[in-house]
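Slide 14.
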Amino acid sequence: MRFTIFPNTKTIHYYDSLEDGLHSLGDGVKHWLKEMLEHMYTDEWVVEHNACPTEHEDSSCAVCMCINGVLLMLGQRPEGLYSSSDIPFLRRYIAAILCESGLPAGKPVEEKDE
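Slide 15: predicted structure.
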């Protein structure tokens, strides 16, 4: 599960690879924002649930969270860009990021043709 906060548009994007339906966590994030950003917080903030690939094993949550974060940093939406069958490769990709102290050249996943 991952939250991405966009202060300029007052939106909180929620990504959940477990699909556990904990949409109420968005209210907790809004409460936290109200405390941390009180000078710019208003009730106008919106929580958006965004689709992302679903994991099928409990040990893949961190992989999905990291890869979703990388894709978001690269300006891509995670939905449809990888699946649970890609997890072994993505674990090695994350290891490469850590060993190289930065993102390897290229994208972690190539955009799939519709």
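Speaker note: The CA atoms of residues 81 and 110 lie 7 Å apart.
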